[in-house]
UniProtKB/TrEMBL annotation:
The keyword rRNA processing does not apply. This is Adenosylhomocysteinase. PANTHER family: ADENOSYLHOMOCYSTEINASE. GO terms for biological process: L-homocysteine biosynthetic process; one-carbon metabolic process; S-adenosylmethionine cycle. Its main location: cytoplasm. Its cofactor is NAD(+). InterPro entries: Adenosylhomocyst_ase-like_sf, Adenosylhomocysteinase-like, Ado_hCys_hydrolase_NAD-bd, NAD(P)-bd_dom_sf, S-Ado-L-homoCys_hydrolase_CS. It is found in: Cytoplasm. Binds 1 NAD(+) per subunit. May play a key role in the regulation of the intracellular concentration of adenosylhomocysteine. Its EC number is 3.13.2.1.
Length: 421
């Protein structure tokens, strides 16, 4: 018999409901969208399946979609990111089926994902493209029901563009991650703050005076580097892209290969979206007590298999802190959150104020898919510019900030070629 939901305990719902309401206080854009959805019901009769981090912010997105008439199911996009009290409240107080338990095994993670797909969704919302991947492999027979999907992460967009490039993509997808009001703010300011929050909660480490190595200088890496420097750390960037490396230098950071800075770092953070960024040869060079964490989507950036092979023992020394003792010199390496997203494994993830824009993009992109699904090909599409701009406008209004507008003379000047010096 198929479970109606699978969470830790409905007894946790009381605290979860308060926390959902608290996050909603600083999500005014999504709140306004939910009010409109409640009137227009754009998702009436639509089944929506989501694989997202089960947090207070995601809960507010689910409530907005339900207000729009959607029948929603949600599973976690990471085994350690679920906030169990939030999952409980969504089930008990809002009657939204949730399949997520913090600390769930890899096997249970995929059972939960399958529970969402068994619902035969017509719109899928992904954070890492695990739902989409299943629909292109183990659940391919369900893909015919899919009107379209949305993708929240850089990693997921890469996977979906690979499917498109190989002419394998089975339905249109909106790359929510690539919206300006998503990656310029969520990736940079959200990841920047929440990653350091996770490291500090797990370790109580002092950043001032420390050397922090940031692997990858994309928007997430920029955010972490900026925040670490603001807290008094010396920051080193590692990169494989010449332009990004040059940008990091121009921004005032040291740039060097991992095999050089491995000796210098006190804290390491990977944010590349790639595999085995920190490997055994790097661990062997690190200081005794080096802190190693990941804030890229999947737990593949730190080579934990390789680390185990060069270690004689492991133990959990603090919650979400595993101490590996190396065979060489009995040196200790500290791995945070099992190498998974440290901001969600050891902290609460991004602040609601920044997720307001990201999830507004999710909600409005889903509405766009419903309206225009028949016009779209099986491709990865950017968020329409008008949606991106409308979210920025709503966010500014919620912050009581006004901006200038072009005069008729200025509009004419910008559209002409005749006027010069």
């Amino acid at each position: 018999m198929t479970k109606k939901f699978d969470i830790k305990s409905t007894a946790l719902a009381g605290s979860g409901k308060k926390r959902i309401e608290w996050a909603g206080r600083t999500m005014p854009v999504l709140r306004d969208i939910a009010k409109r959805f409640n009137k227009t019901k754009p998702f009436k009769g639509i089944r929506m399946g989501a694989c997202l981090h089960v947090t207070t912010e995601t809960a507010n997105l689910m409530l907005a979609l339900k207000a729009g008439g959607a029948d929603v199911r949600l599973s976690a996009s990471n085994p350690l990111s679920t906030q169990d009290d939030v999952a409980a409240s969504l089930v008990k107080d809002y009657n939204i089926p949730i399949f997520a338990i913090k600390g769930e095994s890899n096997k249970l993670y995929y059972e939960h994902l399958n529970s969402v797909l068994d619902f035969k969704p017509q719109i899928v919302m992904d954070d890492g493209a695990d739902l989409a991947s299943a629909l292109h492999s183990s659940h391919k027979k369900l893909s015919g029901d899919i009107l379209g999907g949305t993708e929240e992460t850089t990693t997921g967009v890469i996977r979906l563009k690979s499917l498109e490039k190989n002419n394998l993509l089975l339905f249109p997808v909106i790359a929510v991650n690539d919206a300006l009001t998503k990656h310029l703010f969520d990736n940079r300011y959200g990841t920047g703050q929440s990653t350091i929050d996770g490291i500090i909660r797990a370790t109580n480490h002092l950043f001032a005076g420390s050397t922090v190595v940031v692997a990858g200088y994309g928007w997430c890496g920029r955010g972490v580097a900026m925040r670490a420097r603001g807290m008094g750390a010396r920051v080193i960037i590692t990169e494989i892209d010449e332009t990004k490396a040059l940008e990091a230098v121009m921004d005032g950071f040291n740039v060097m290969p991992m095999n050089k800075c491995a000796r210098e770092g006190d804290v390491f953070v990977t944010l590349t979206g790639n595999i085995n960024v920190i490997r055994p040869e790097h661990f062997l060079l690190m200081k005794d007590g080096a802190i190693v964490s990941n804030s890229g989507h999947f737990n593949v950036e730190i080579d934990l298999i390789g680390l185990r092979k060069i270690s004689i023992s492991t133990r959990e020394i603090r919650p979400f802190v595993e101490e590996y003792t190396l065979k060489k010199e009995n040196k200790k390496i500290l791995i945070l959150g099992e190498g998974r997203l440290v901001n969600l494994a050891a902290a609460e993830g991004h602040p609601a104020m920044v997720m307001d824009m990201s999830f507004a993009n999710q909600a409005l992109s889903a509405e766009y898919l419903i309206k225009d699904a028949k016009k779209l090909e099986n491709k990865v599409y950017p968020v329409p510019r008008e949606i991106d701009s409308s979210i920025a406008k709503l966010k500014l209004e919620s912050m009581k900030i006004k901006i200038d507008t072009l005069t008729p003379e200025q509009k004419k000047y910008l559209s002409s070629w005749e006027i010069g010096t």
